[in-house]
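Worked example

This section walks through a single chain of length 417. The input is the sequence exactly as stored; nothing has been trimmed or padded.
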Amino acid sequence: MELGKYSMGIGDRFSHQGKAQLAAIFLADRHGVDITPVWNKSHREHRIIGTQPARVRAEADAAVQKLLWNKSYFVDADHINLSNVDMFLESSDFFTLDVADFIGKTPDPKELDAFVRSCREYTGQIGIEGIDDPLHAWQEDILRVGEKFLFAIREAGNIYRYIAARKGEGNFITEVSFDESNEPQKPIELLFILRALAREGVPVRTIAPKFTGRFNKGVDYVGDVEQFTREFNDDIAVIRWAVQQFELPSDLKLSIHSGSDKFSLYGPIHEALVRFDAGVHLKTAGTTWLEELIGLASAGTDSLEVAKDIYSQALDHYEELCDPYATVIDIDPARLPTVEQVRAWSGADFVCALCHDPTCEQYNPHFRQMLHLSYKIAAQMGRRFIDALEGHEAVIAEHVTENLFERHIKPVFIGPA
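Given that input, the structure is written out below as tokens.
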């Protein structure tokens, strides 16, 4: 199964924007950039909205047929584990194995000892092309990596083998995700994580480490861009080295998700991809849902009221909506507009506050993050929300396509003009 050098996870909460998302991939194709679309939706999102994975497959297949897409595409069972993978087996051919919760659990002592002994040839100074200063790993360093990650990697192996036994090896793409862990993984840790995955027999095609800084939902990266750039470059170099040393899949690449908008990082990411001639898997997740709200706010009076009602009800359920995302949001309740203020807004006011444009005086990142979490409210509206989506499909689709292409695809995959 060919994932391709560049691939993009195009999450869609309500499975209505498949054609609009694919239209953005077509625009990239016209610019000479081949991107594999991967429709993704997590178990958490299905549970909150009350949908099933088959709906994502139906959306992807319908978009591909309607737009006559004749290249590869996938449906991702995003952030799954053994407790919920069964519901995705039939409809998915891409599985993101999320093992962050298992980091730090104590591995079997015999397995740990065998892992450390298997890494003896990599102790000392490790020179890796693309990294200015050699990496260093002593036996105690390898032991610490094993103590921290080996249990999680064994769990990744268990999930992979469970899926392979039911779908057949080679019939799906495997991603391993550590990005929702509490601490970032250093390049030397990534190196030995890859060593452990190779020993575990997991043919990982994309890997999502946690980077330094915060990837909050719906807003830009918060952190040291230069430090991220060094980590991203070093991780690419480590992956290239590990592929050769550990006989991992030749197309293994980094995956970046955790937050929809990472605009300040897109330039450095593009430069690193060019420098190394490397691939990347980029997940955009909730950005499409926000563009639906922007489209509704700009489409007319009735649809604007739907968007306003979602915000009003979201404030009533503030803690319930925020708790599951506590580690990836930074909302100051004092800076959220009141319901009365939002009720008085025009459609243009609502759009300006929500659209991710820091140059606009009305842009409110707290408002944007709050609405990013509020898709549960829209789901509870039932037909009222879905009818609004379908009734204003053309306007919403234009926003979705333009956002994906102009704000995400161009800066990462095409680069500056």
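What to look for: The chain has two domains: 6-287+405-414, 288-399.
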